[in-house]
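ok trying again, last paste got cut off:
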Amino acid sequence: MLDLARLNALTENTVTAQEQFDLTEVVSQVIISLESKITGRNLDVDVQMPDEKLMVWGAPACITQVCYNLLDNAAKFAAAGKRTGKKDLGRMAMTYGYVYVASISMGANKQQTLKALKEAEAYKGPSLIIAYAPCINQGIRKGMGKSMEEGKLAVDSGYWPLYRFNPELAEQGKAPLTLESKAPDGTLRDFLAGENRYAQLKSIAPQDSERLQNDLEKAYNDRYQLLKYMAAFSGSAEQPKAAEEPKVTE
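nice, full thing came through this time. structure:
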């Protein structure tokens, strides 16, 4: 995003060389400089410029940098995107065996949220709470006033699981993981369509969007089944014990 207010403030204290130059030549040079990055991500660039020169007045170096930044970001966040799945921070923390972990969404379950916060505070060791917290950059079509409702939709669709992992339960021979969300209800596509960050991809690259949504549905169904399996596991005394609070000496 180009912040013109900041640029105006900058130009008040900065002197730039003003001259007349061909804007089409600047854009062409920028595309050439980014060619390896664009082709390396299997992207195509549709360039439509006038046949004749497009002469403008300004600072060529500044305009070149702005064009480069815009095209570089477009290539970086294009539909090709990141092909591998996200790291599961919650499950990664569980592998330590002595970290309290919870995944919460206040819009979906206020009681579970409160219980997780209380348990995390009382736990004698490191605690990690991962919360679904909508922000304006998600482009929620209902508006930010519906962020609690969005949190519930995220959980119902399987996009966001609810659970608590308490290592102290393993010491009692109980399952340390408590899964508190139901299986995905099949509304994942409706949920994704309600946020501009996903809906825009469908309008720009419908085939990529369809394939990625299919992959997401499978991934989230598989994740739920894995969490369900983990929640059925009974802990043992051989598992790592909760970390004790460090003793402070004067």
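cool. The two ends are 53 Å apart (CA to CA). The CA atoms of residues 2 and 66 lie 8 Å apart.
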